[in-house]
Specification:
Blueprint lengths: L4 E5 L6 H12 L2 E3 L9 H6 L1 H26 L7 E3 L5 H9 L4 H13 L7 E6 L2 H11 L9 H21 L5 E5 L9 H19 L2
Parallel strand pairs: 1-3, 1-4, 2-3, 4-5
Helix pairs in contact: 1-8, 3-4, 3-5, 4-5, 4-7
């Protein structure tokens, strides 16, 4: 069977990492988790977005670039399927919201250079929800750096994600996107919801690996 590269995307707190763990177990996939809280600029960013956004985004980009290089060489090229709790395209979503002036075009040039030739997802799972649901879940997990999360920033981020994903599907019709509305779906705490998600994903997994 061909190895498949699955990525999970959606706004902060939506459940990407939790679902990636479940998919890894259910379909025997190598798990790739993004480096987030090791970022030394994260806390400063939430306190002052304008001041620390470029440093934050460059740290994320360089770390994700190295992770994807390693995953490609050590797993995908060796025939091992992978699920990641992020897609590197998220970098452009965040950058276009947080960077201004000369920083954005500089950043996008670096992004294009680094991502050329990196493995691209064969399947994207997109999780979304209302601002109320997202903020509630962020509050429930109670992480120090997220306690000063700006609600207006999160509202814009959710809108940015929705807009980006619509454009992505038009630009990349060859990449299936499975969308889950998570306001009434809690695959972390309700086993039946998790089973529903796995059943929706299974046909796409099998179709790719057996093609």
């Amino acid at each position: 069977m061909k190895p498949i590269f699955v990525t999970i995307e959606g706004p902060i707190g939506i459940g990407k990492t939790s679902l990636s763990h479940e998919l890894s177990k259910a379909f025997d996939l190598k798990l790739l988790e993004e480096i987030v809280y090791e970022n030394p600029f994260l806390g400063k960013f939430y306190e002052n977005i304008a001041e620390w956004s470029f440093q934050l985004e460059m740290f994320f980009l360089c770390n994700r670039y190295k992770q994807l290089q390693d995953i490609d060489r050590n797993y995908l090229q060796q025939g091992t399927s992978v699920v990641a709790d992020y897609n590197i395209f998220k970098n452009t979503i965040f950058a276009k919201r947080t960077l201004d002036g000369d920083n954005l075009p500089k950043y996008l040039k670096i992004y294009d250079i680094l991502t050329e030739g990196l493995p691209q997802a064969h399947l994207v799972i997109y999780l979304t929800a209302s601002i109320e649901t997202v903020m509630n879940r962020i509050e429930m997990r109670d992480r120090d750096v997220e306690r000063k999360m700006d609600v207006a920033y999160m509202e814009r981020l959710i809108a940015d994600y929705n807009e980006f994903m619509k454009a992505f599907e038009k630009r990349h019709p060859e990449v299936p996107v499975i969308k889950f509305q998570c306001d009434d779906l809690d695959f972390v705490h309700r086993p039946k919801d998790l089973q529903y998600v796995l059943e929706q994903v299974k046909p796409y997994m099998h179709a790719w690996q057996e093609s």
